[in-house]
Design brief:
The chain has about 450 residues and is an alpha+beta fold. It contains eight helices and 23 strands. It is globular and about 100 Å long.
């Protein structure tokens, strides 16, 4: 988005450019480049008169004759054995591997630059520029402002996933979508996600270029990450690259429409350059698959950007294609994700799981919402949810990440630790209210 935002630790905008340091100004004022960078060679010393080597010459000639005879014999032996006529081994190319194949063929690691080029060629045609006319709800008398962001066509029938903040407040719920091939289509905001900074846009058309969708659940820090989008709304289909810096990040941003802080969970951190206008664009892996939707950057540092994992977006993407209303599962608890540090602070018996607590005396809100699916199932404050459908709840698989892979109405099985005793509790997931602060 190009709209200004309140000063905050995390924002959708990049840091303002810093003034040029003094040393760089001095460099521009330095003396002209010298005409010669390499010192001249010193004058050559006179060569001494050659000594008589008639005896040595005879020895060298004899050695050369012997070597020639030996080489001829070796060539004849190799030719008779057929070794000279054997075909050269063929090298197979396998991305991300440097080992030797079972057949003995050499396996060559794919060049990183080549992977970036190929990934951009595959995904760029499906990355679009989204322009909106917006009126801020904070000032109903303000003139409409123009917002710009990016989006990803994930279904060839015109379904696009983007950020909530890119299309929030769009006049008449309509946006202009510019395709990479030069076409501009009028799109409609199909729905907004109540859990994350995501939205679905629909444009008319068939056989549109669609980006391959990957699996963010298998990501590891250090993997190649490629960001594709329209920074500043002008430099369309720009490609930047970096790595997956970290996983499971949590940040707080400001909602443009309400001015209230919004917390985003389980984000991918990357150092691939993300600028205003990149929001809603694609974060891509080396195989040319979308693994995330770019959403925010840190304003107090460079090289710190965040993307929503594509696995979080998958459920609402599928709901839209099926013609369903966008919805998220909800159980109605407030919890803390446990780790060794949280265990020490909260004095819990284990260092993993989702701890229903601690109570927040300032908000006065209950840890288990009355009438919620959690209350109906019998969950209580102080319980620790250790697994969901057999999958352990931990830093790699937090509870909210496991829940978003399900749909409202589904029944899940929770393993719960209560007063030192393990028990199984089944919960039928509800539909997350728009005002819900927690799961």
């Amino acid at each position: 988005m190009t709209d200004p935002r309140p000063d905050d630790t995390i924002s959708y905008y990049s840091p303002q450019p810093e003034p040029r340091p003094t040393w760089s100004q001095d460099a521009w004022n330095a003396a002209a480049t010298p005409s010669q960078w390499i010192e001249p060679y010193p004058p050559a010393a006179p060569r001494p008169a050659p000594a008589r080597t008639s005896g040595a010459v005879l020895v060298v000639v004899a050695a050369l004759v012997a070597a020639a005879l030996a080489s001829a014999g070796t060539y004849t032996a190799l030719d008779m054995s057929g070794a000279l006529n054997r075909p050269a081994p063929v090298a197979s190319v396998t991305a991300g591997s440097g080992s030797t194949g079972s057949s003995g063929q050499q396996v060559v690691t794919v060049n990183e630059q080549s992977a970036i080029v190929k990934a951009a060629q595959v995904v760029s045609p499906a990355v679009v520029t989204i322009t909106t006319q917006q009126t801020s709800s904070l000032d109903p008398f303000s003139l409409p402002a123009t917002g710009v962001g990016s989006g990803i066509i994930y279904n060839s029938n015109g379904w696009i996933v983007t950020n909530h903040h890119v299309v929030a407040g769009a006049t008449n719920n309509q946006v202009q979508v510019a395709l990479a091939d030069g076409r501009t289509l009028t799109g409609t905001v199909y729905g907004l996600d109540t859990l994350t900074d995501l939205a679905i846009v629909k444009v008319p058309g068939t056989n549109l270029p669609a980006a391959p969708i990957g699996d963010s659940g298998s990501l590891q820090p250090g993997q190649l990450a490629i960001a594709i989008g329209s920074p500043l709304g002008t430099f369309t289909n720009s490609v930047t690259s970096g790595i997956v810096s970290a996983l499971g990040r949590q940040i707080t941003v400001t909602n443009d429409q309400t001015g209230q802080p919004v917390t985003l969970h389980n984000l991918i951190q990357t150092d691939a350059a993300i600028n205003p206008g990149n929001s809603g664009g694609a974060l891509v892996n080396a195989a040319g698959q979308v693994i995330g939707i770019n959403t925010a950057t840190a304003t107090t540092a460079q090289g710190i950007g965040f993307a929503i994992p594509i696995n979080i977006a998958r459920p609402i993407m599928a709901q839209a294609v099926a013609g369903q209303k966008l919805s998220r599962p909800w159980i109605g608890i407030r919890f803390t994700s446990l780790n060794p540090q949280a265990q020490q602070q909260l004095n819990t018996p284990i260092d993993y799981g989702a701890y229903i607590g601690p109570a927040d005396a300032t908000s006065g809100q209950p840890l288990v919402e009355p009438g919620s699916p959690a209350a109906t199932a019998g969950l209580k404050a102080g319980d620790i949810i250790t697994a969901l459908d057999g999958q352990r709840v931990d830093a790699t698989h937090p509870l909210d990440m496991l829940l978003v892979t399900h749909s409202p109405g589904e029944t899940v099985e929770l393993q719960v630790l209560r007063n030192g005793q393990q028990m199984t509790i089944k919960v039928t997931l509800g539909t997350r209210p728009a005002s819900a602060a927690e799961q």
